[in-house]
Design brief:
The complex is a heterodimer of chains A (518) and B (311).
Chain A (H helix, E strand, L loop, with lengths): L1 H16 L3 H16 L21 E6 L6 H16 L3 E6 L4 H10 L6 E4 L5 H6 L14 H6 L2 H6 L9 E2 L8 E6 L10 H14 L4 E4 L6 H6 L2 H5 L4 E3 L8 E4 L2 E7 L4 H15 L12 H9 L3 E7 L8 H7 L5 E4 L11 E2 L6 E4 L5 H10 L3 H9 L6 E4 L3 E4 L19 E2 L4 H10 L6 E2 L13 H19 L5 H15 L1 H19 L1
Parallel strand pairs in A: 1-2, 1-3, 6-10, 12-17, 15-16
Antiparallel strand pairs in A: 3-13, 4-13, 5-10, 5-11, 7-8, 8-9, 14-15
Chain B lengths: L20 H6 L4 H28 L3 H7 L11 H7 L3 H33 L5 H13 L4 H11 L7 H4 L6 H12 L3 H9 L4 H12 L1 H17 L2 H6 L8 H13 L14 H17 L1 H14 L6
The chains are: A alpha/beta (518), B mainly alpha (311).
Chain lengths: 518, 311
């Protein structure tokens, strides 16, 4: 008789588990309702900024997270903005790693917001082609402060086919890759390529615990260019690529239709040879391909490295405070990779890496009004650096000293070349280079300054070349593989991936652009 | 039915006199057992070492970590990363948010899953098969990111609520079918016996089926709880108010912020500790959910042995 036996065992189990169906149901319901009551109510789209009474604030999407002391700062900003122009700002911060995807989603879903950070390296090309961005070509001139803060050269260089689709966010006219190094480890002033290479050797000899130069997995061609002896004589060669991580083409400045793959450029090949030599001598770290930039920066700030690559954004000395805590007496300096130093006039496109774009589904006039308001020094400083006396204090005419942990992603909304203050910790040489990089007249206009290649016809080949660059070009630029064998493998892989077709398309687009320019 | 196990050279249990305790105490362990203990012990230790290094690293000063790498003991003790994480109320709000999402989400998910699974498992005409197909389709296709986003934000208007995180994960089809398989293993005779005793369908489900299904309920609860605890992407999409961020999103933001800090000017505190912060975040994140496993463990074991001793 199996049934009674089974039934008995079930009954025992039942008694030990659930008292009754009613108890289970009511318990679950009570628990859910109780917990549901725990979430405070939140107005939609709220949370990161002040709201004007009786009206919606201007919603702007920015990368990063809310800065420290944000509520006090945005409160003060909105109070003044409301009094000055009758509106307020609601800045919402989106996770940095997913920012591009989220903004694209918000545009696709036709959400109502006013502005956001976007760029060619995100999805700006796609947004422009789908008419998702407000055309600002004729709008800038209508706003006095904004048009005064944006140089005509900047506006012209950042037009796509004659139209302006966003407000360029730059704090300098040019972005020049160069060297940042521990000045306290140098025997004297570094003035040329040879003295820099000797500096690296001396560091290795005198400080075995310190790796002379830091490379990480986010550097590639730029490192090869800055380390090329030819660059010192003849400032940076002109190059173009369909997308950031792909293999581009080197361009003859005298005839821009004369192009060849970057791995055939003498500047780059010579730079790769120097990097290989440094690698074999132990003058650069051997984990560059797996070392991410954040970790590398942390290691530089801890004193593991003597020198690294920097760019003219005024942030090269940002690790000084932490470095000095780890290595008392440490100091930093910068070195341009040009024989003529600040007198060199390297080619520059003046194209901005980032744009504040405006959503036509939002309030375009209000977004521009805010951009105009932020182009006034006092207003700009309040949002960029926080409340004066609490978050920062002026140091001289054009510097500031941070007093709190308030850090705002200014490059996403309010970077203006003449309004940006430098951190008080900036080294003398970096200050000099940064000031030099702010002036358009210090550079030679790239013959393809307003050229923006369209990847659509060669999208597949470009994607394959991106993989080739990761597999072959990056190891070459970190010195990890033999130069001749590596270049040979790179060439074969690039040819298999369709470099010829990509070059032909690039040549066609350049010719069309030049014809259009007259 | 009972079985008797006898060891070679020994009398069957219950047929000989009392066995002296001293003799049992002197019994020498078999060589294989000793070897097994050593191998398993070493394997266990090898598993613990990386975890311990994470703990030790999270308490090691950033500059030492950056220069010397990981060690088994903090050579320069520092709690800077934990101080950074636990400064302000954000982390406590995030713990509460994650707790809410995990508890409410798990309750809702388990109830929904066993409900739908039971109907499918009953093989009732007209409902079980369509429901099975309805549950099976999402295993193959999803609605896609944009339609789901539009549904949550413009139809359900769930932005800035924790339900925006819970509802999209409410039912996992795979777990529904695992539960269906378990329910189909319950002998029909039990249910027939209950019907003979006058039980209705709901009573059978709540008083007979669910108590018999503790192992699968534990499995479901654990899987759902871990999924809800680790959930951050839906929160990223739908929650913009930092007061409502769950723990994983808060920590994700923290780490990406530190990773991208080189693009921003340094604050008054200088450069944030990247190494130490990553390790400390690992500890902070896994702590609470790790506690769920011991509670569920006994049900896993029971699930494996259920019915083994009954003939």
């Amino acid at each position: 008789m199996p049934k009674p036996t089974i039934a008995m065992s079930v009954k025992e189990d039942t008694m030990s588990f659930t008292p009754s169906r009613r108890a289970l149901l009511s318990g679950a319901a009570a628990g859910m309702l109780g917990l549901a009551a725990c979430q405070p109510s939140a107005p939609l789209g709220s949370g990161s900024g002040g709201e004007g009474v009786g009206e919606h604030p201007s919603l702007a999407y920015l990368p990063s997270t809310q800065p420290a002391n944000w509520s006090a700062v945005i409160g003060a900003v909105n109070e003044k903005m409301k009094a000055d122009i009758g509106t307020t700002l609601d800045a919402q911060f989106l996770n940095w790693s997913q920012y591009a995807q989220q903004v694209l989603l918000k545009f696709t879903a036709a959400e109502t917001f006013d502005s956001a950070l976007n760029a060619r390296w995100m999805n700006m090309v796609q947004l422009v082609s789908s008419n998702s961005l407000a055309d600002l070509t004729d709008e800038i001139g209508k706003h006095e402060n904004l048009s005064k803060a944006l140089a005509p050269e900047l506006i012209e260089a950042n037009k796509w086919s004659g139209r302006l689709w966003g407000i360029p966010q730059v704090n300098g006219a040019a972005r020049i890759h160069h060297f940042g190094y521990r000045d306290d480890l140098a025997a004297g002033e570094l003035t040329d390529f040879d003295s820099f290479l000797k500096y690296l050797s001396d560091v290795k000899q005198k400080n075995p615990d310190i790796t002379p130069f830091e490379l990480h997995n986010n550097v590639g061609l730029n490192q090869a260019i800055t380390f090329s002896p030819l660059t010192w004589e003849d400032p940076q060669p002109v190059s173009q690529a369909f997308s950031g991580g792909s293999i581009g083409v080197a361009i003859n400045p005298d005839d821009p239709t004369d192009i060849r793959p970057v791995y055939e450029s003498e500047h780059i090949i010579e730079g790769i040879r120097v990097l290989r030599d440094l690698y074999e001598k132990g003058l650069v770290n051997k984990d560059a391909l797996t070392l991410d930039s954040a970790t590398a920066n942390s290691q530089f700030a801890a004193g593991r490295f003597a020198a690294h690559g920097v760019i003219t954004d005024g942030l090269g000395s940002q690790s000084l405070k932490t470095l000095q805590a780890a290595v008392p007496g440490a100091s930093l300096a910068n070195l341009l990779p040009y024989r003529d130093g600040l007198a060199a006039k390297p080619f520059q496109t003046f194209q901005s890496d980032n744009f504040a774009v405006i959503n036509p589904a939002g309030d375009v006039d209000r977004a521009l009004q805010i951009q105009d308001w932020l182009s006034i020094q006092e207003n700009h400083d309040m949002l960029a650096y926080g409340i004066e006396g609490t978050d920062w204090t002026a140091s001289g005419e054009d510097k500031y000293e941070a007093l709190s942990d308030y850090v705002f992603p200014g490059f996403a909304l309010l970077w203006r070349i003449d309004l940006e203050r430098m951190p008080s910790t900036i080294s003398a040489s970096e200050e000099e280079i940064f000031a030099w990089s702010k002036k358009f007249e210090n550079f030679t206009l790239d013959p393809l300054a307003t050229f923006y290649p369209d990847v659509t016809p060669v999208k597949k080949e470009d994607a394959e070349l991106t993989n080739v660059a990761t597999e072959h070009l990056k190891p070459l630029c970190s010195g990890a593989v033999d130069v001749d064998a590596g270049l040979d493998a790179l060439r074969r892989a690039a040819e298999a991936a369709g470099i010829e077709k990509v070059m032909e398309e690039m040549r066609t687009q350049i010719s069309a652009h030049l014809a259009e320019q007259g | 039915m009972s079985t008797t196990v006898t060891a070679p050279g020994r009398s069957p249990v219950g047929t000989s006199g009392p066995r002296p305790a001293a003799r049992r105490g002197r019994r020498r362990p078999e060589g294989f057992t000793v070897a097994s203990y050593i191998v398993v012990g070493l394997a266990g230790l090898a598993s613990l070492v990386p975890f311990w290094m994470i703990v030790a690293g999270s308490f090691t000063d950033e500059s030492v970590l950056a220069r010397q790498g990981y060690s088994l003991w903090p050579t320069q003790f520092s709690t800077a990363a934990y101080e950074g994480i636990f400064s302000g109320s954000a982390i406590y709000n995030a713990y509460f948010a994650s707790g809410y999402i995990t508890i409410v989400g798990t309750i809702c998910s388990v109830l929904s899953s066993v409900g739908i699974a039971w109907v499918i498992a009953r093989r009732s005409s007209g409902i079980s098969r369509p429901l099975a197909i309805f549950a099976y389709i999402p295993m193959l296709f999803s609605g896609g990111l944009v339609p789901t986003y539009l549904l949550v934000t413009q139809v359900l208007h769930l932005q800035n609520t924790w339900w925006a995180v819970i509802l999209p994960h409410m039912i996992t089809p795979f777990l529904v079918f695992v539960t269906v398989a378990f329910f189909q293993g319950i002998p029909e005779e039990i249910l027939d016996a209950a019907r003979v005793d006058g039980a209705g369908e709901l009573r059978i489900f709540f008083r007979i089926v669910l108590p018999l299904s503790k192992p699968i309920l534990a499995v479901l609860a654990l899987f759902y709880a871990v999924a809800y605890w680790n959930e951050w992407f839906n929160a990223l999409l739908y929650i913009s108010n930092p007061d409502f961020y769950p723990l994983q999103l808060l920590l994700q933001n923290l780490i990406t912020n530190v990773s991208n800090a080189s693009q921003l000017p340094a604050s008054a505190s200088g450069v944030a500790p990247v190494y130490q912060l990553r390790l400390a975040l690992t500890i902070v994140t896994i702590g609470p959910i790790l506690l769920a496993y011991p509670f569920a463990q006994r049900y896993f074991v029971k699930g494996l042995t259920l019915g083994a001793s009954k003939g």
